[in-house]
Amino acid sequence: MRTERKLTRLDRVFARLDREPERPAHIDVPRMSRHRVVLLLATLAFYLAIVWAVVITSWLVRLDWQVMFFRPYQQWSEIHWFVDYYVVLGQRGPTAVMVAAWLGWRSWRQHTLRPLLTLGASLLLLNITVGAAKYGMGRLGPHYATTIGSNEMGLGGDIFPSGHTANAVVTWGILAYLASTPAARRWLSALSAVVSLGVGMATVYLGTHWLSDVLLGWAAGLLILLALPWFEPLIDRAEAQIFDLRDRWRARRGAPARAPLSPVETPVRLKPRTAPQNETAARSSRAPVYLAPGPHTTRSERAPVTPVGSRRPPHPDRVARGTASTPHPLTGG
Asked: Out of 73, 181, 284, 321, which residue is the most buried by the measure of CB atoms under 10 Å away?
């Protein structure tokens, strides 16, 4: 009795990987709703308020200096090693590679380039907006401060807003933005918020950013995520153009272009050949050919035939059974 081999968990995983990728029937694309517009305007107001508070050297700048003199990396030195590793979650290179690998897998499984194109669009917006703000305001960091109590603006720095914090908000928040279900979107939003908050506080702990840098970095990253629905039509258009180019390339490889035919090689449509009347009459005047009567049976269905006579070869001294033998001339027998 033949029994089927029981599939293990590893076999089921490989069977799932070998399954043909399928495009989902419905992809939930976030829209620019009224609630989202209100959040965008509120975040923009918060962004401008932080910039204005730093420019006029308000209480926020004094708080920056107090936190810097507190030196958290000396107060809690036992967690310094952990913070050094944790802050990598805000670096653009490692985080972009990790998130791009996951979104690339999703793109292949769903037959869509939207996850990768959305990540690319968000990182492009991050580089343009945050980079322009950094070099435009030119604020120096805590380790390079020149005057106690000043805002350190316009001195050639590039730390305002915090790039680590903004990158953490955008890179991990894009996973929540591209979630396929509302429940997954809520959980991933909470997870990305915790990760980005931790990255921002880690830079303050290490003394590489002012507290106001981190606040502005959170606002800068959130603005990009809230504004992404405005760029969805561009993303759809880019995806359609890429797939169009791919289809053209595949068609060109599968059916190579042929050179045009010369006048001599122009194909001619042939007509069916009709037999002459005399040839048709000659064929009809022939005598009909009849086959052997009865149905043709296969070899296995035929009755066995017993051969007549002996199968032994003939011999001059051998006498067939049932006949009288002649005496031998010498023996007489």
From this structure: 73
Numbers of helices and strands, H then E, in the chain: 12, 0
Residue with the bigger pLDDT between 38 and 316: it is: 38
Largest CA distance in the chain: 156
Average pLDDT (163-187) is: 91
CA distances from 67 to 40, 47, 98, 205, 325 (A): 29, 21, 33, 9, 140
Look up residue 172 and give its DSSP letter.
H
Q: 205 CB contacts (<8 Å, ≥6 apart)?
A: 72, 73, 76, 83
Q: What is the DSSP string of 37-52?
A: HHHHHHHHHHHHHHHH
Angle between helices 114-137 and 163-177 (to 10 degrees): 160
> Which pLDDT does position 268 carry in this prediction?
45
Q: Which of 123, 126, 127, 154 is nearest to 138 (CA)?
A: 154
Measured CA distances, 189 to 91, 120, 305 (Å): 19, 19, 90
Number of residues that this document lists for the chain: 333
CA separation for the pair 198, 218 (Å, rounded): 11
Tokens found for residue 314:
């003939």
Residue with tokens 């952990």: 82
CA distance 216 to 158: 13
Confidence class for position 20, pLDDT limits 50, 70, 90: very low
Rounded to whole angstroms, the Cα distance separating 155 from 134 reads 11
18: enclosing H helix or E strand: helix 9-18
Residue 106 contacts by C-beta under 8 Å, 6 or more apart in sequence? 115, 178
Distance, CA of 246 to CA of 252 (rounded, Å): 10
**pLDDT at position 247:** 87
Tokens 């011999």 sit on residue: 315
CB 47 within 8 A of CB 57: no
Closest by CA to 100, choosing from 117, 121, 116, 88, is 116
Closest CA to 211 of 62, 110, 35: 62
